[in-house]
Design brief:
The protein is α/β, with parallel strands linked by helices. The chain has eleven helices and eight strands. The two termini are about 20 Å apart. Helix 5 packs across helix 7. The model has no long low-confidence stretch (mean pLDDT about 95). The relative contact order is 0.16. It binds 2-phosphoglycolic acid (PGA). 2-phosphoglycolic acid binds next to strand 8.
Length: about 250
């Protein structure tokens, strides 16, 4: 690729973190001040911490994102949070379609597309997660699954500043298992071709993150794979030291 996109290392804290966790965030900020990685850094804490984290990270080079949004801007949706509210709280990005949302909340590709549309409406960068389950992989249905997820959830119009794809094999999330670099190269190459087919200009510059059991020990190998433009990190993003070690793969 002529212009390699600037990598993004994003941390998904999931349902972890209390007000006291701001100290971990401060360690990340101090770490990047002393040795900034050649990558964008994003932390997605639970919604209860968004406003505080956004205030603490102002001007630091770390940006703050959310983990989900409702498709509608407001209304009678008890317990839900809209993309506009996330932006109002200081988020600049939102994850949509994470496999835990797909599994636990039965979100469909159509729901994910609506959420991606809401994120665009609120001017949030969308991190759209896709990936196959263990049984889909074993049945040789991985690329078919990914193609269907892209067909059914990718917004019609996208640009590299506002869309990031995260390829996360479901069986690799939180398990310590990862695909081989060769598998990742194949899948990321496949996703890149799908994006290019839809938009020749934008498709080459959209960042494709790898996610699923990324840690300081395997990050160098996984992030060196062609068409891997960063990582979506779960468990290892909860410790500043580990998150920084992953981000510093990019120097
Ligand atoms: P993990 O999670 O790094 O803990 O496997 C990744 C994710 O769910 O985004």
């Amino acid at each position: 690729m002529a212009n390699k996109p600037r990598p993004l290392v994003a941390g998904n804290w999931k349902m972890n973190g209390l007000q006291s966790s701001v100290s971990e965030l401060e360690k990340v900020i101090a770490g990047i001040r002393s040795r900034p990685p050649a990558a964008d850094l994003l932390i997605c804490p639970p919604a209860t911490l968004l406003a505080r984290f956004a205030a603490v990270t102002q001007g630091s080079g770390v940006t703050i994102g959310a983990q989900d949004c409702h498709p509608e801007p407001f209304g009678a949706f008890t317990g839900d949070i809209s993309a506009e509210m996330l932006a109002d709280a200081g988020a600049s990005a939102v994850i949509v379609g994470h496999s835990e949302r797909r599994n636990h909340h039965k979100e469909t590709d159509g729901d994910v597309k609506a959420k991606a549309g809401a994120a665009a409406r609120a001017k949030l960068m969308t991190i759209l997660c896709i990936g196959e389950t263990k049984s889909e992989r074993e049945a040789g249905a991985t690329t078919a699954r990914i193609e269907r997820q892209l067909n059914d959830s990718l917004p019609e119009k996208f640009d590299p500043a506002s869309l990031v794809i995260a390829y996360e094999p479901v069986w690799a999330i939180g398990t310590g298992l990862t695909p081989t670099p060769k598998d990742i190269a194949e899948l990321h190459g496949f996703i890149r071709r799908q994006l290019l087919d839809r938009d020749k200009a934008a498709g080459g510059a959209v960042r494709i993150l790898y996610g699923g059991s990324v840690n300081p020990a395997n990050a160098r190998e996984l992030l060196a794979v062609e068409n891997v433009n960063g990582a979506l990190v779960g468990g290892a993003s909860l410790k500043a030291e580990d998150f920084l070690a992953i981000a510093r793969v990019y120097q």
